[in-house]
Amino acid sequence: MTKLSDTSLRALSPAVAVPTYDRSAIDIGVVHFGVGGFHRAHQAMYIDRLMNDGAGGEWGICGVGVMARDREMYDALGAQDWLYTLVVKHPDGRLEPRVIGSLLDFIYAPDDPPAVIDRLSSPQTRIVSLTITEGGYNFNQVTHEFESHDPAIVADLAPKAVPRTVFGFVIEALRRRREAGIAPFTVMSCDNIQSNGHIARQMFTAFARLRDPELAGWMDEQVRFPNSMVDRITPATTEADRIELLEQFGVDDSWPVVCEPFTQWVLEDDFSLGRPALDKADVQLVPAVEPYELMKLRLLNAGHQALGYLGYLVGYEYVHEAALDPRFKTFVRTYMDAEATPTLLPLPGVDLDAYKGQLLDRFSNPEVRDTLKRLCAESSDRIPKWVLPVLRRNLETGGPISHTTAIVAGWARYAEGVDEVGQPIEIVDRLADQVTAMAQRYDLDPLALLSIEQLFGDLASNEQFRAAYVATLRRLHEVGAARTLVELNEGALGSGL
């Protein structure tokens, strides 16, 4: 057994790949907010790949945690020199462990806000990247405006406030850079939001405008916010993952990260102070990301939601269990083919049929052991961004809506907080209280959940959608998810016509 650290790297098993570069010679050029599993399996991995190839020496990463839950990650990684093991889980059961060394520092912001601001203000920092979750942008789903009433935002906007949100830190650092004549860093969103760079620009400049309109104007002119599409299924790390790494490879890692073999990063090439040579690390640098975004969000992410709620209600625990069920295979593929694909933009050179088949194979990987519970979390942020755009588009064009509607109805049934055998469901959602209260009003008002305007806007007024939604939700209550799934696959439910 070897405790992971800089000094123990050479003692690790030859089966574990380790950094081939001198970490002490790497400079920090990237500050990243949101050091969770996905960042460590994706962006940090790509930078590490570049460094192993002898490039990227000025693009080391300093992580920043602003949430209370980030302390645990800070403590775990700090005890092992910010190193961690990335374990790729292949469908045949083979494990491919690799120690990632591109994370060189980590600041837990509540403990030392000035250190965060100093790092962001340094000329050495040229990119600030973000994986702060879909809900982290304070973006109103209906008005598309910045939600400035959030208590943490209000506190950060107070005169001489010590920042505690990502908005407060980034804008204060940009203010200082502007005053010092230092060029601004690029803000690079890596969250699963359509046009994530545009949304980041809109939200950060909205915060700045509330604090200093002149600063916001300068940001509009000077700060780059590239769009990106990121893809890698990365389930939450479990104690079983830690034990497996220890027993099979002798690595004692407090917080490894596990993932599937597939990975993709499509990035708009729009940086103000340079960027790593990411194209040499298999990142696709493109002038326009939107077609790739729509493909991924409406097929993979929405496809996950198609499995999540109904799969949980049927009684499955893991994603692969539902994905291997022929009823779910038919349901998800029909959603992809008939409802999602017609809403996508042209992607020359991309074989969509092959891509969709590959997605179903990825969902079916039994080694990843991704949970349906994870897919069902934070649905109030995910459904409006990934599922409802497909629904709205097909309502506009006269396309089919049965399967998309079933995803929404499945969420409504799941959000009631009790499964089909009477066991409680833990609803993990920033709007859990409101969503559950409305979902539980089903007997009095089947449309109650749709009345949450910040999520659904005017969709509740669409007669076709209302009819399909009520019919599907009624069947979920009357016959359960398994039988409802069969009826959907047979075309006997949910047309709304």
Oligomer classification? single chain
Strand content: 5-15%
* Tally of alpha and pi helices: 20
SSE-based structural type: alpha/beta
Helical content class: 40-55%
C-alpha Rg, in Å? 23 Å
Summed over residues and divided by their number, the pLDDT gives a mean of 96
Stretches where pLDDT is under 50 for at least 5 consecutive residues are: none
Q: State the major sheet.
A: 5 strands, parallel
Question: Which descriptor suits the 3D outline?
Answer: globular
Q: What is the number of E strands?
A: 13
* Strands side by side in the biggest sheet: 6-3-2-7-8
Distance between the termini: 63 Å
Structure report:
- The structure is a single chain.
- This protein has 497 residues and is of the alpha/beta class.
- The protein has 20 helices and 13 strands.
- The protein has a 5-stranded parallel sheet, with helices on both faces.
- Helix 4 crosses helix 6 and helix 10 runs antiparallel to helix 12.
- The chain is globular.
- 46% of the residues are buried.
- The mean pLDDT is 96.
Structural topology:
Layout (H helix, E strand, L loop, with lengths): L1 E2 L24 E6 L3 H5 L1 H10 L7 E6 L4 H9 L5 E6 L5 E6 L2 E6 L4 H9 L5 E4 L20 H7 L8 H15 L5 E4 L6 H16 L1 H10 L5 E4 L7 H11 L1 E2 L4 E3 L4 E5 L15 E3 L3 H25 L4 H5 L2 H15 L11 H12 L8 H5 L2 H19 L4 H13 L17 H8 L13 H4 L6 H16 L1 H10 L8
Parallel strand pairs: 1-10, 2-3, 2-7, 3-6, 4-11, 7-8, 12-13
Antiparallel strand pairs: 4-5, 9-12
Structure keywords:
497 residues; alpha/beta; five-stranded parallel β-sheet; 11% strand; globular
